[in-house]
Design goal:
By secondary structure, the chain is mainly beta. Helix content is about 5%, strand content about 30%. The protein starts with 6 loop residues before the first strand and ends in a 15-residue tail after the last strand.
Length: about 200
């Protein structure tokens, strides 16, 4: 069976950046599951997988425009420390939901000053050319329910109910946090413990 619209696909992937540094790999863990044609995947990688079958292996270089998009300076902001309310010990790497020039988005703390916290709403890989090594493990017909919901129903899979749609292996459309996901929906409210809001690689958000 070949990968076409509304196929449920399982892959292993290895992602490196322009410097050849390993960003993320699924080969040592669980494979990634996604619904082809449902914008679960960054456009360049989904296009490269179109027409492939189980057992295929491919090396793909994806420019920023077909990955996580360009870097937007307007998504980097200085936020008064007072806006974080009673949240203590704010440190670089923490993630929050905040209002930005492009609407409500997950942001990451990049710097903490005396009375100001610098946050960045860009995806960590925005503006970068990405290199993927991919192995297709399986391809099947998606169920009617999966097609209706726009993602695969598998625990831990890309787009499953246990998975946040913020930035990782799933992506597409508007930025949002899946109901029941790990990021809060209140401005300047810390993401739930253990969540970086990204979820895995390949996602547009």
């Amino acid at each position: 069976m070949i990968i076409t619209q509304h196929k449920a696909v399982s892959i292993h992937y290895r992602l490196t950046n322009q410097q050849g540094e390993l960003v993320e790999s699924s080969f040592e863990g669980e494979p990634m599951l996604y619904l082809h044609g449902a914008e679960n995947m960054i456009p360049g990688l989904e296009a490269a997988l179109e027409g492939k079958t189980a057992g295929d292996k491919l090396e793909v270089t994806i420019e920023a425009e077909q990955a996580y998009g360009p870097y937007h300076d307007g998504l980097r902001q200085d936020v008064p420390l007072s806006a974080f309310g009673d949240i203590e010990d704010i440190v670089p790497g923490m993630r929050f939901i905040a209002e930005t020039e492009m609407g409500q988005r997950p942001v990451q703390v990049t710097e903490v000053k005396d009375e100001v916290v610098v946050v960045d709403g860009n995806h960590p890989l925005a503006g970068q050319t990405l290199n993927f090594s991919v192995e297709v493990l399986s391809v099947r017909e998606a169920t009617e329910e999966e097609i209706a919901h726009g993602h695969i129903h598998a625990s831990g899979g890309c787009g499953s109910h246990e998975h946040s749609h913020e930035g990782g292996c799933c992506g597409g459309g508007d930025d949002h946090s899946h109901e029941g996901g790990c990021c809060s929906d209140d401005n300047a409210k810390e993401a739930k413990e253990g969540c970086d809001g990204n979820g895995g690689c390949g996602c547009r958000h």
